[in-house]
Amino acid sequence: MSTIxxxxxxxxKPFVRRLASSLIHDGFWVWLDSWQLELGQQLQGTLGAxxxxxxxxxxVLSDAANRSEWVRREVELARDVEKRRGESILIPVLxxxxxxxxxxxxxxxxxxxxxxxxxxxxxRSALSRRGLKxxxxxxxxxxxxxxxxxxxxxxxxRFLRCIEGIYARQGSDTKLAPEQIxxxxxEEYEAAVTALHRRHxxxxxxxxxxxxxxxxxxxxxxxxxxxxxxALIGGVSRIVNNLALxxxxxxxxxxxxxxxxxxxxxxxxxxxxHALPQGGSGYGDEWFGxxxxxxxxxxxxxxxxxxxxxxxxxxxxxxxxxxxxxxxxYFDKRSDAIKAGEEGRxxxxxxxGLTCRAKFLFPQMLYSEYGFRAIYGKPELRWDLAGxxxxxxxxxxxx
Length: 399
Prior knowledge:
alpha/beta; 3-stranded antiparallel beta sheet; globular; disordered C terminus; 14 helices
């Protein structure tokens, strides 16, 4: 009984996602409906089981929560559990001044209405005293959060704390399925996606759609964005499951995840900027039209200058054709880790150092795999991160 159940109104989702994210990064086991429930499940029975098995219920109080029938039912479920156990599990979390009413008014509460950091510090201490921090839990309940507080950049520090906590509880050889990885995008990204969906809903009534033009491209952009999000989550799952966490910020897992998430963030920004009217989407506008030349790749990797290697992918025994299945991988030009082997071929395992692989090679391997699939429609292209090779494919790097 170590779960933390968060009872809240739908209108308070942004605050609740932030609170759940903070708790998970600090090692607490959170049950949140949007992460746990599946379409078609019986709400009453599922929620009842979740409350019955939890260590505490955080009751997020606001005007919306006080009007919510579901919040009322969840409080009743919590009260029934308290009677059976003979202990208190309900903790009011005050989100809005004046929302502490009814039975909750007689309970000691945590006040977030004036300061999130002050309220969270108080809540974290209270939950830790109850023995809920880093409590053992089944592997299936673990969640790795990809938090993007601003633009395309992953919060690397939070990511690292989260994955280290999972390894500490489950073991360093833990494998995470894509459904255990949760995307927490920035407000700018969510606003841009909402704007894109509004364009789709308007159809031909969209004032920015030229007269007689088809609405099909808007739907295609929406589908492309879903593919990008799936590729982001799936790629991080493969990184976590193939690269060991050694050291701290120098680990290949950390460096590869941060760079790969940025690459997919740029791809999402380019998609949204193409899909939305003039003036940009407000998300990653500075990356629109980037990653098309050496200068923008250098800016992306924050190095003075880059060099690139042409990569050809083809089935064994067949001739590689650049026009059909080739692309480039970029590296820091100052690095001497990339050296040509015999006949211009490169042995990645021997010539590419750990830092080079983590920051440059591995992220672009996954990024190019997604791009290759999207452009050429060849899903058989899959990298093996552990062996630095392609599964069932041939690979040549030409200097």
